[in-house]
Amino acid sequence: MSAEACLVPAEHSRLLKFSSALFYAGSSFLITVVNKTVLTSFRFPSFLCLGIGQMIATIVVLYVAKMSKAVQFQDFDRSILLKVFPLPLLYVGNHITGLASTKNLSLPMFTVLRKFTILMTMVLEVRILRKTFSKRLICSVGAIVFGAMVAASSDLAFDVQAYTFILLNDAFTAASGVYTKKKLGAEGLGKYGVLFYNALIIVIPTFLASAFTGDLHKAVTFQDWSKATFVFCFLMSCIMGFVLMYSIVLCSYYNSAVTTAVVGAVKNVAVAYIGIFVGGDYMFSWTNFIGLSICMSGGLVYSYLTFSNKSSQSNAQETQEMKIHISEDSSKKYSVY
């Protein structure tokens, strides 16, 4: 009876982990397509203003939810800044570099170069969260990075600025994921507080920056505001910005930061191959395609090693063995006395 009772929470936990990962994968896929439509198809001139729209959507949705008692998180005070730092800086860096790279980079190459996020996340988790990884996981990450380098080496539409933005976006995403996992344990904040105060702290500085650089004027005078299709896509991007950030926090809450990065890589399998046939901005070459396939294969192997039952069982066995050793040591200590 007690054994069955112990199994129920474990099954429930696995369901939450898988559901949050699936939610993040779907959200990430949809916002990539929507942002690509707004910035490339409609040629919206300001990725910065699109990011501001996503921040405003996050603030409005969570504030209304808090006022209606649908969610709860700490009211603002001086301690908030210390609790969330440096997440706001990483948040705005992730938004700006991500939207900038989406604008000038083909969809398949965008998804390939995003694979470097996994390597960066793994390094940061080792250094900041003191985690360890098996050799098989490290080798699979090596395959992902190698495939990305092969695919990028023959990119016929090479853009130095776009590549710089995407690599910076990888770094910001990795750091944001690791620190989000670390900050979720902050007392009083929780998932919703982290999202709300991140957006609230940085939206005004970002708005002032867009006005200073002239991006705000370009966005306001954009000629397609009168088109219902563009307005719909813009609003969808703003809403999906909130949904994506929530799904990232949720996935990091139930899993680890590196698992969240792995889920993004698995999602990229669908995005990259769909982008070859849809979108019209992919310039085919065999080297690029082979590198893309190596990269995706590495991502699938990593995902299998991470989520397979065999890995879970081995971890459980190691934990059980550790408990046995501890109990034996403690019994010896007590026998001495």
TrEMBL record:
<feature type="transmembrane region" description="Helical">
    <location>
        <begin position="225"/>
        <end position="246"/>
    </location>
</feature>
<protein>
    <submittedName>
        <fullName>UDP-N-acetylglucosamine/UDP-glucose/GDP-mannose transporter-like</fullName>
    </submittedName>
</protein>
<dbReference type="GO" id="GO:0016020">
    <property type="term" value="C:membrane"/>
</dbReference>
<keyword id="KW-1133">Transmembrane helix</keyword>
<feature type="domain" description="Sugar phosphate transporter">
    <location>
        <begin position="23"/>
        <end position="303"/>
    </location>
</feature>
<feature type="transmembrane region" description="Helical">
    <location>
        <begin position="284"/>
        <end position="305"/>
    </location>
</feature>
<feature type="transmembrane region" description="Helical">
    <location>
        <begin position="136"/>
        <end position="154"/>
    </location>
</feature>
<feature type="transmembrane region" description="Helical">
    <location>
        <begin position="21"/>
        <end position="38"/>
    </location>
</feature>
<dbReference type="InterPro" id="IPR004853">
    <property type="entry name" value="Sugar_P_trans_dom"/>
</dbReference>
<feature type="transmembrane region" description="Helical">
    <location>
        <begin position="192"/>
        <end position="213"/>
    </location>
</feature>
<dbReference type="InterPro" id="IPR050186">
    <property type="entry name" value="TPT_transporter"/>
</dbReference>
<feature type="transmembrane region" description="Helical">
    <location>
        <begin position="44"/>
        <end position="64"/>
    </location>
</feature>
<keyword id="KW-0472">Membrane</keyword>
<dbReference type="Pfam" id="PF03151">
    <property type="entry name" value="TPT"/>
</dbReference>
<feature type="transmembrane region" description="Helical">
    <location>
        <begin position="258"/>
        <end position="278"/>
    </location>
</feature>
<feature type="transmembrane region" description="Helical">
    <location>
        <begin position="160"/>
        <end position="180"/>
    </location>
</feature>
<keyword id="KW-0812">Transmembrane</keyword>
